[in-house]
Amino acid sequence: MKVAVFSARSYDRRFLDEANGASPTSPPTELVYFDVALDADTAALAHGCQAVCVFVNDRLDAPALHALAGLGVGAVLLRCAGFNNVDLTVALDLGLFVARVPSYSPEAVAEHTLALVMTLNRQTHRAYNRVRDGNFMLEGLLGSTLHGKTVGIVGTGKIGLATARIFHGMGCTVLGCDPYPSPLFEPLGHMAPLEELLARSDIVTLHCPLTEASKHMIDAAALSRMKAGAMLVNTSRGALVDTTAVIKALKSRQLGHLAIDVYEQEGALFFQDRSGEIIDDDVFQRLMTFPNVLVTGHQGFFTVEALREISTATLVNLRHFIESTPCPNRVNAAS
Ligand code: NAI
């Protein structure tokens, strides 16, 4: 069994090779690594492979999926939970096996959410640079005490719950909003409709999936409902937020802080070293000019524990494909 691994970085190779060595398949699985992202133009690299293994910014649209199926590829193994980058209707029509890793250390993303909030609130990123430069002034570093503040969590699934536990433990009032409320949230806070959550929260953090319905859920109207000066955090998917509306809200001071680990057009930027290049994305570049904006490049999941779990679960999914056994992580029309 030959698997083409796209968007492969050194850490993908390390953890996938480790997992492959620890749990060999019969016949043995050969992992072929490609740095490039998968799309209709690069799909041909999977020639001779029976499966492809992809990440968040690989584009499995109709042309890419048709090209893969034409090469005899039978399986798409996602090294992530979200599958908004796969045209599922086409994949299922073509009879492709699509499987994801639904959970890999939700705490990793929740802890990164906390890191973003704490950094932005207490300006530790600026303090670090100042002190290294021999500047010990405190002007401009004023934060607020989070204890007693209200944190609104949009999506109280695995990551939302882990985030709720952290902020509850810090003495914050926690509000949650989810069409399918979890009983596990009950001891941590109160459920509220989105409009109420936006109006009451000092920090709003997004942990729901990107779907047609949730796209741009944080638009100009939602931003105007938020408390003036509140913080918005997005570690979920970029397109949950209308970035142009966010820039307007930052300029008008309605939005006090923005912390994002994901960005609507991140596919053209993230997971690459572009430090020597001119970045053409003017919207992203405008975001970079605000002192109250913090951006990380989709690293919420990036812990040893999560990478180990992603690799192990991906190879278990592959084994289900090889052995035609029921795969609990298979993505189907109802997912
Ligand atoms: P989950 O499936 O456990 O939870 C998602 C929750 O959102 C569910 O309870 C669902 O009912 C709720 N939901 C759906 N639509 C909603 C809406 N319109 N408003 C409010 N709630 C809604 O998923 P999990 O594991 O907690 O992941 C959440 C998201 O985090 C993923 O969809 C993915 O986009 C993102 N993610 C980001 C990572 C990163 O590295 N930054 C890593 C892993 C996931």
Automatic annotation (TrEMBL):
Belongs to the D-isomer specific 2-hydroxyacid dehydrogenase family. This is D-lactate dehydrogenase. It holds the Pfam family 2-Hacid_dh_C. One of its GO terms (molecular function) is D-lactate dehydrogenase (NAD+) activity. Residues 114-300 form the D-isomer specific 2-hydroxyacid dehydrogenase NAD-binding domain. Its EC number is 1.1.1.28. SUPFAM superfamilies: Formate/glycerate dehydrogenase catalytic domain-like, NAD(P)-binding Rossmann-fold domains. Residues 3-332 form the D-isomer specific 2-hydroxyacid dehydrogenase catalytic domain. InterPro entries: D-isomer_2_OHA_DH_cat_dom, D-isomer_DH_CS, D-isomer_DH_CS1, D-isomer_DH_NAD-bd, D-LDH-like, NAD(P)-bd_dom_sf. Transmembrane segments: none annotated. Keywords: NAD, Oxidoreductase.
